Amino acid sequence: xxxILITGADGQLGRELRSLMEVxxxxxxxxxxxxxxxxxxxxxxxxxxxxxxxxxxxxCAAYNNVDGAETETDAAIRINVTGPMNLxxxxxRHGAYLIHISTDFVFDGSRTSPYHESDRPSPLSEYGRTKxxxxxxxxxxxxxxxxxxxxWLYSPYGKKNFVRTMIHLGEEEEIINxxxxxxxxxxxxxxxxxxxxxxxxxxxxxxxxxxxxxxxxEGSCTRAEWAxxxxxxxxxxxxxxxxxxxxxxxxxKRPKCAILDKSLIRTVxxxxxxxxxxxxxxxxxxx
Length: 287
Description:
It is a single chain. With 287 residues, this protein is of the alpha/beta class. The chain is 38% helix and 18% strand. The protein contains nine helices and twelve strands. Helix 1 links the parallel strand 1 and strand 2. Helix 1 crosses helix 6, helix 2 packs parallel to helix 3 and helix 3 (73-94) runs parallel beside helix 4. The longest helix is centred in the first third of the chain and has 22 residues, at 73-94.
């Protein structure tokens, strides 16, 4: 049986993975967050992986405060670059397989067609740059690994995410302004967790070294359309007023259109990708 390390286990994706794995009961998993294992400490990572005979790692840990990364760049680098590097280098030494989670923010969003894994990244923000550097660190380590980029992740487990924020505003306000010129795909973290569990048993069949795959739910929308769907599903009497990003300035630039093409992950691993509206309809009951 594999000994699987899940880092960032208290986050949205980590908690969805834990929920699914505990129901299955056919995998031995060790769940850690920053209080249990500091992935920015190379010695601590090496000791943990060696002491626990780790065979697979799912790195869900990330500095994901997009605007905060503009000023807290050192913290973003430690968690998004140094952490993955430490995990990957230790994985290489012990022959462990690493699944590293990345983001659509590695792209600038200047195109309207979906991004393929082979498209050249061009991040607009410090967050995107640190996540891209984390991908590079994993690839350079030479460890057995795949990198999964995802987008607009949400879960009822999240302390702060777009869905939770919109519900809170919808309960308090009669009208809210939401940008209508950023297009992407909302992704239910449970869907991504299920995809990862589907992929896990297939990894041993083929050695892969830093191969990139895209996964988000299917379809696309603007953030304003996403917000309106949330209001409708929660039956909140709140109007969504679409506005341009210029009327809602943020510290970090966001991609205008960062839709991910999922053809490769479907073909290679047989992963099923549900429509974002259908997944949101299921998830919204848990908020």
